[in-house]
What we know:
By secondary structure, this protein is α/β, with parallel strands linked by helices. The chain has helices at 10-14, 45-50, 56-62, 87-101, 111-132, 136-161, 169-184, 188-200, 240-247, 249-258, 260-272, 281-300, 305-328, 345-351, 363-366, 372-377, 386-399, 409-427, 438-444; strands at residues 6-8, 17-18, 21-26, 29-32, 75-80, 227-229, 234-236, 355-356, 406-407. The strands form three sheets. It has a five-stranded mixed sheet with strand order 1-5-4-3-2. Strands 6-7 form a two-stranded antiparallel ribbon.
Amino acid sequence: MEVEKKYITSEELLKHNKPGDLWISIQGKVYNVTEWAKVHPGGDTPFLNLAGHDVTDAFIAYHPGTAWAYLDRLFTGFHLKDFQVSEISKDYRKLASEFSKQGLFEKKGHVIMYSLISVAVMMFLVVYGVLKSESVLVHLGCAMILGMLWIQSAYVGHDSGHSNVMSSRGFNKLAQILSGNCLTGISIAWWKWTHNAHHISCNSLDHDPDLQHIPVFAVSATFFRTLTSHFYGRKLKFDSLARFFVSYQHFTFYPVMCVARVNLFVQTLLLLFSTRKVPDRALNIMGILVFWTWFPLLVSYLPNWPERVMFVLASFAVCSLQHIQFCLNHFSANVYVGKPTGNDWFEKQTSGTLDISCSSWMDWFFGGLQFQLEHHLFPRMPRCQLRKISPIVVELCKKHNLPYRSLSFWDANVRTIRTLRTAALQARDLTNPVPKNLLWEAVNTHG
């Protein structure tokens, strides 16, 4: 005898969106993920942001087909009474299914192997040049190579964080620790914590940590209202100090990017030695200790302090190219305030993302992340497949009248600086910290 289905409405589901009471819907079936959020490999942030909504598209984006088998144990017995699927979600799910049938999520190619080889070669050149040469120019060249090493190693860490490198979760974790913690000094635990939140709440001013750079940067005048960061759990105060820095942010952007790694080192240490629950804390700390052993030791072999300072600053400056790229992908795209709903997954990703167009021979330099929208829509897709699926994503955006922005590296920089300048000029208006012309604000502050 068939059991009669039990239903709840979307309004009733939305009531279960607080810590200690987290429900979600996937394809109309309602799941209680309150306890699962505590042990979820991706952390609890996705649930805290999306609970109370149907999250089918986000689930499909982040999970392989094998994950569906784990849902039954979380099923509440309820179905969503007013469950509907938008036309764009139907197309997105169909596209994800087709890519899966083609095996694109498993075809990792040889890109990572080449990246790892290049990292090993660069490390050899850096160490050899520092130890065996007394030339200042050689040491400067080694510093620049080290910056490129960090860039490429970070891409490997990023890809392994999305399980796009190795065949198993354990080996992916090993790749993350080696390429992230040991080689770059950036904790993969910190990266996963912030990166998962960024993907889920792409360009939400109060939920996406990748836009929360007060008091140094503000991409929108909305920050002038002193928003509360739901990620960090504190107010992003727009005080006199923030106003001063933001007023000149279009001038300070590149200088700050040259020393941005210092902030990443600090954020890593703050997380690893905080009271917050950190997955694999001991392993992450061990990896960081490896970095803070070899890097200072390498610098100490330089003959004098001027060269040591030059070496560190030059390596940071080269690596700033990657920090700049990450900002280009999102700073000048649309922003919004509030949680993502989960019901407009495709729309939110296209709205908050900008691609960088380049020749295929430059893919190694951008690490595949020049196809930022493609990566956000299909984060499990290996980078070697992103150029292949890009035309398909373009057509889907055209079909549903959604933005697909792809600019040259130069034009993306111009657009980003223009965005920063717009907010800077607004911040300088001491008598009018929040624009009074709401129409002007809607057009010019991206959201």
